[in-house]
Amino acid sequence: MVLLLYSRSQVISFQIWLYCTNAHTISCLIIHSSEIYCTGPILQQVQKAKLFDDDKYFVDMKLREAPDVVLSAFRNLSHEFPNTTIPSAKLQEFVSAYFEEPGTEFESWTPPDWHDEPKFLGKIADQELRDWAKNIHDLWKSLGRKIRASVKDHPELYSQIYTPHPVIVPGGRFRELYYWDSYWVINGLLLSEMTDTAHGMIQNFLYLVNRYGFVPNGGRIYYERRSQPPFLTLMVESYYQATKDKEFLRAAIPVLETEYSFWMQNHSVAVKVNGAEHVLNRYYVRVDLPRPESYTDDLELAEGLTDDHKEQLWMDLNSGAESGWDFSSRWYMDSGGHNNSTLREIRTSQILPTDLNALLWLNEKTLASFHRIMGDGDSAARYDQAAARRLAAIESVLWDAERGAWFDYNLVTHSKHFEFYPSNLSPVWAQCFSLPEMGEKAVEYLKRSGALQFPNGVPTSLSDSGQQWDYPNAWPPLQHMLISGLSKLPSEDAKKLAFDLAQRWIKTNWLAYVKYEAMFEKYDVNGDGKPGGGGEYEVQLGFGWTNGVALQLLDQYGATLTSGSQSVFSGLLPPLISAILTLQ
């Protein structure tokens, strides 16, 4: 048994982690503020009392006093009500006395590198869309956040994890940085020529890897035990392509390798197919407790289960949150191993996801290219070999030649899940396939799937489960990955389909903006300008990755995309008429 001590800062709050090497389990004794925000009687009683509409609200509140003082006050309050639950009114008084509303950890901040007229706007022919793109560009200012120095000086008073640079947050209830959201945010910032803000965000993620060994799900201590899809290497690649800053790249590479090692050491699994053993990756969070930010949802979902089944359920809910798809029928597994059950049968950790493995293949290829840029051929060859092994594994375990796509693999039944998800085409986005015909087969699969029949995007699944990562919702990152992948294929048919999907997506985003003057985190594929719904919380406004995806599509296809309210060329008519009159 190895004892490791991690410090949250130079000050009070810290964690002690016990790694049990013989069982691949991690138990964690968290003290001080984590006893309030992550586990313990205060969290349990306040969340069960449902003092707030959203469980996340409480765990984002700031302490007015040191954790020991708050814990002591709560013990005294508990002694007034021995062997019974503290009444809600008393709990409300306690929370009001010892906690401040969320948001006090930030100071007002406007990105200093924001300016009025980024060049990409000039590529958008449709005047309505150009004006809208300008409004989206403006939103970076409202989504900017700078963490107060007091979070660094007194981390014990906050659930917020201190990071040294300002961030662009998703928006709404998501008041802090989030991991995979930020890939599309950063690409949008680079289009907006906000290079310094993008650089600072990447530096924050590198800082987090240096501190934790990986990037947490988001910027809160209750996210410290899980990550999200590992996009940091691609963020660095986007920044390097925009700046060609070799010194930045040189400093980043060792940190990216640390993150890659985390995924390989903690999230990999060996599978044997046709006599050959392959190593692929999964989402796997060894935390068997309710998520603090969704505490009552997780408790209620586990009612009536045995303790062992509760712990398994909570571990797989945490793993589902790590996937970014929280939640989807994609992770369900009934007694027969099929994913047509309910959230209570979630088994995320027993599924090898196509998109995670395509992303890690892309990380390996990108790390190889980084090492070549730095002149380190041996390290480049090592990552090329890792990518070659993964490609062989993906094609042996996940590819289905008959159907023409890649499918998640069930570790319980040793079989693929054949339901439709946009992630089935993620290797097209990553360009992770060995034969050109595989990409073309994937286009035909998409056409046959039934997922293209909707006017406002490709749904996240064809299962109407009530979960937000299912039908009828469409999500910006999945649309962009699908469109980007199709646009890279050589066939004109694939490129035409990419444009058609971009037009559908831009139209529904724009119509929603016209109706609500807002960007949403997800949209309904059936309604022009209709925001998405379902899941654990109301649809959120903002919205970081929605903005980034819209700007990227407007940059790529701006010359031909239309709002539907006018011709692409209508913006040329007034000056053209004026010129004709002048000639007369």
Question: Layout of SSEs?
Answer:
Elements: E1 2-7, E2 14-20, E3 25-30, H1 34-37, H2 41-49, H3 55-59, E4 62-63, H4 67-79, H5 88-98, E5 99-100, E6 106-107, H6 127-143, E7 144-147, H7 149-153, E8 167-168, H8 181-191, H9 195-212, H10 232-243, H11 246-266, E9 268-273, E10 276-281, H12 295-301, H13 307-323, E11 351-352, H14 354-373, H15 377-397, E12 399-400, E13 405-406, E14 409-410, E15 415-416, H16 426-430, H17 436-448, E16 473-474, H18 476-488, H19 492-516, E17 523-524, H20 544-557, H21 573-583
Antiparallel strand pairs: 1-2, 2-3, 4-5, 6-7, 7-8, 9-10, 11-14, 12-13, 14-15, 16-17
Helix pairs in contact: 6-20, 8-9, 8-10, 8-20, 9-10, 10-11, 11-14, 14-15, 18-19, 18-20, 19-20
**Terminal-residue CA separation:** 90 Å
Class by helix and strand content?
Answer: mainly alpha
**Alpha-carbon Rg, integer:** 24 Å
Largest sheet: 3 strands, antiparallel
Enumerate the spans where pLDDT stays under 50 for 5 or more consecutive residues. Answer: 1-31, 566-584
